[in-house]
Amino acid sequence: MNIIILGAGQVGSTVATELAREESNEITVIDINQTILSDLQDRLDLRTICGNASYPNMLEAAGADDADMLIALTNSDEINMVACQIASTIFHTPTKIARIRSVEYLRHPGLFAPESIPVDFMISPESLVTEYLHHLIEHPSALQVLDFADGMVQLVAVKAYDNGPLVGHALKAMKQHVPGVEMRVAAIFREGQSISPSADCVIEADDEVFFLAARKHIPTVIAEMRKLDKPVKRVMLAGGGNIGGQLAALLEKDYQVKVIEANPARARQLSGMLDSTIVLLGDAADPDLLLEENIESMDVFCALTNDDEANILSSMLAKRMGAKKVMSLINRSAYVDLVESGLIDIAISPHQVTIGALLAHIRRGDVVAVHALRRGSAEAIEAIAHGDKNSSRVVGRSIDQIKLPAGTTIGAIVRDKKEGKKEGKKPEKKVIIAHHDTVIESEDHVILFLTDKKKITDVEKLFQVGLTYF
Amino acid sequence: MQLLVIQRILGLLLMIFSSTLLPPVFIGLYYGDGATAPFIEAFGLTIAFGLLLWLPVRNQKKELRLRDGFLVVVLFWTVLGIFGGLPIYLSGIYGISVTDAVFESMSGLTTTGATVISGIDTMPHALLFYRQELQWLGGMGIIVLAVAVLPMLGIGGMQLFRAETPGPVKDNKLTPRITETAKALWYIYLGLTISCGLAYWLAGMSLFDAVAHAFSTIAIGGFSTHDASIGYFDNTAIELIAVVFMLLSGANFAIHFAAITHRTLKPYKRDAEFRTYIWVLLIVSIITIGYLQFTKTFSSTTESIVEGLFQVVSIGTTTGFTTAEYYSWPGFLPVLLLYVSFIGGCSGSTGGGIKVIRILLLVKQGVRELKRLVHPNAQIVVKIGKKPLPEKVIEAVWGFFAAYFAISALMILLLMASGLDQDTSFSAVAACLNNLGPGLGDVSQNYASINDFAKWVLVLAMLLGRLEIFTLLVLFTPTFWRK
């Protein structure tokens, strides 16, 4: 695919890196800063152009005429919107994705229509990260919680501990432990290596287990892997920027929330925005302030500033001072690996979250959602199967018969309930946890798990409908 | 330094190169005038050596780093220069020595076109074809070809690509993917070669000569299948065709690409380097033709114009074809032409020399210094076609320029120390470093008469010229080898 990326900032560079890795993509990056571009050019096989991203001549130089997709990721919402407008008006670029950060624009969905501002998909990293954090606070024992099929199915990563009833037993024992709960283990990572989860596979302590289950069964399954943490009551957020503010607004109904913000103006603004949240003015790495605010009784401490180092240090401090669980936003992937083995419980990489959302639009075949797992080394995909037994390589076949690439497993299927399809009513859906003899039907949402990202093109091909379909 | 990865790629490249020894075998069989055995032997030896390098380390699949790229390129050109001489040496033609075989092969690959062989007209067709083919492969760069056909080189391929393509700014790719860029370059190259060959053929060359000369014209090489070079044909049409195609090949291939994809001639008009290139050749042609007329070197005006134009373009683009005995032209003309060859072709072309863009930058930089004397506080940027250039590029160009002349001075001294006269030394170094070919004095017709030491120095000069000095020179710095 011929893709133009506008803006080579943190997100832009990471997206370019991800996409350039796949052979079939041709990437051109436009940015105003030559230094960043030269650096990208040295590392990756792509083309760079230095200039203002929204100017028509720049887009033309980047080959907008034959581009399949434009991804506007500059740090200005306005430039991103204008660039999409220009790409649409002058170059008729088929797919336009823009990063829109300001909630003000997002509040008016009608704004982004083909006849007004032609943005096909909007990516709002702050909202995505907020949602991600929200999930983690809901399930304090999980490392990662991802939604599929509008949240009906969730993929959960959890670290197994000695105190879990299933630990030390084979996976097939699960059925006897909790009858009636359907789940499927998608992958197990032991000491960084993936092992294929057969029925006889024994779960050991410290394994990182990825499983799929219907939303309501998630806590039961987690409880099998480790003793459940107590539900969260008190949350402290360090940093009241976009993410901190949004998250506090989301959480304050159900939890006791405290936000620490260093900027007086922003702190005042926050306290106006939020109702029951306590906004504290001060430094998140100030032990006296933390002590004063009862850090030792906090269930979750989230460091959410823009500064990786400050986040790492303040969350380490919070952990040492007694916070039960600390999470930290970390942009540099090199740091993520460093800190997760140490004092910090969960490191969240905003880029990975954003990229997952972007990748869903870039994948061929009808892919609804893509999530990067384990910092991009594995991927979970939700794809829709189309066609019939002749035109599709998946429809009408049982999971045994589908030629899946190595390292790929089908975890679950979400299917419209036939009887639920009544006039005017939203069709109800049911979750089918995949077994070897489950037969896939047309229009099923299939959730796959890939431990090797290189196989992604094979999976895409699998879900592309043969020409006879048309 | 990832020596094993380098060894693997080197082995692979050698195996690929070995296949280029096969076409001469077929040519030899077709014409039935012998010299097929040395090619088969050389093929066997080269592929065996490549396998020997590759087999033990075939699983070393790591990305090439910047430094590895330099080493691969230099090693490959060196090894290829030596292996390329193998069939020539094995053929034993005119009792050729190892030195001469390597000189001939390196001269071919680097598109210099200097030869140590006389009596070319009576050589077997296989050998004749092989010399032309060497030039053609070296013209666009054999590594660029490898990058185009071997996707496995990946990002490492880009490091190689950069080390091999000429010009001060190497980041303007034609397409986002390096493989696609390399392919596009080779398609243009192939297209030019085919059109050139057709044109020669229609103008009256035999098919063999047409193909052979198309190879060396588009590669800006200068090898011919005749001792008298293009002059052998004594045909104005052929000379003018050669002029057109030499001009095209001396231009940046990126402009050709832009012109072809957008089907317009605008890119040529817009490109500052191309304009300068044409102006330089035009002005020098006018001076040359005027002086030829003035001294009445040729009997007719038309002859002066055609011969003057041909010789200026041939030497200015560093091709090195000859039609007239330019070395015996009156007054300053031979030296003027050699000076023009220092300017050479455009960046991103198959031509040699310092490259027009660098000269243009140096001139602009000089003008800027003058302006600064008058306006000490002025902020002046050096621009090429309305685009300001980073200071880094200008510094690099200065460095290149200084190194170029330091090296040529050193080599001239070495040649003189080995017993050559000043004319010969200067012109031989200029002709080899600029990848031009024919020089003045003892080397005006061929390089057979000079001593072996001088030949080896010139082999190095050719390699330095083709790899634009720094790629090779960097290997001799301690920093390069430090961990």
- Secondary-structure-based class of chain B equals mainly alpha
Low-confidence stretches of chain B: none
Share in β-strands of chain A:
25-35%
CATH topology of the largest domain in chain A: Rossmann fold
Quaternary state of the chains: heterodimer
Mean pLDDT across all residues of chain B, rounded? 87
Q: Looking across the biggest beta sheet of chain A, what order are the strands in?
A: 3-2-1-4-5-6
Low-confidence stretches of chain A are 420-425
Strand order of the largest sheet of chain B: 1-2
Indicate the CATH architecture of the largest domain in chain A. 3-Layer(aba) Sandwich
Strand composition percent of chain B: under 5%
Task: Walk me through the structure.
The complex is a heterodimer of chains A (470) and B (483). With 470 residues, chain A is of the alpha/beta class. Chain A folds into four domains: 2-123, 3-Layer(aba) Sandwich (Rossmann fold); 146-225, 2-Layer Sandwich (Alpha-Beta Plaits), CATH 3.30.70; 239-348, NAD(P)-binding Rossmann-like Domain (Rossmann fold, 3-Layer(aba) Sandwich), CATH 3.40.50.720; 356-469, Alpha-Beta Plaits. Chain A is 30% helix and 26% strand. Chain A is built from 15 helices and 22 strands. Chain A has helices at 10-20, 34-43, 56-61, 77-91, 103-106, 125-138, 174-177, 218-225, 242-251, 264-273, 287-292, 308-320, 333-340, 350-362, 456-463, and strands at residues 2-6, 26-31, 47-50, 69-72, 95-99, 121-123, 142-148, 153-159, 183-190, 193-195, 208-214, 234-238, 256-261, 278-281, 300-303, 325-329, 346-348, 367-373, 378-384, 408-416, 429-433, 445-450. In chain A, the strands form four sheets. A six-stranded parallel β-sheet of chain A has the order 3-2-1-4-5-6, sandwiched between helices. Chain A has a six-stranded parallel β-sheet with strand order 14-13-12-15-16-17, with helices on both faces. In chain A, helix 1 packs across helix 14 (350-362), helix 6 (125-138) crosses helix 9 and helix 6 packs across helix 14 (350-362). With 483 residues, chain B is an all-alpha fold. Chain B has helices spanning 3-18, 22-31, 37-54, 66-84, 86-91, 98-109, 125-140, 142-149, 154-164, 178-202, 207-218, 236-249, 253-262, 266-270, 272-294, 301-316, 333-343, 356-374, 391-417, 422-433, 452-466, 470-473, 478-481; strands spanning 383-384, 387-388. Chain B has a two-stranded antiparallel ribbon. In chain B, a hairpin with a 2-residue loop joins strand 1 and strand 2. In chain B, helix 20 runs parallel beside helix 21. Chain B is globular and about 65 Å long. The mean pLDDT of chain B is 87. Chains A and B meet through strand 2 and helix 2 of A and helix 9 of B.
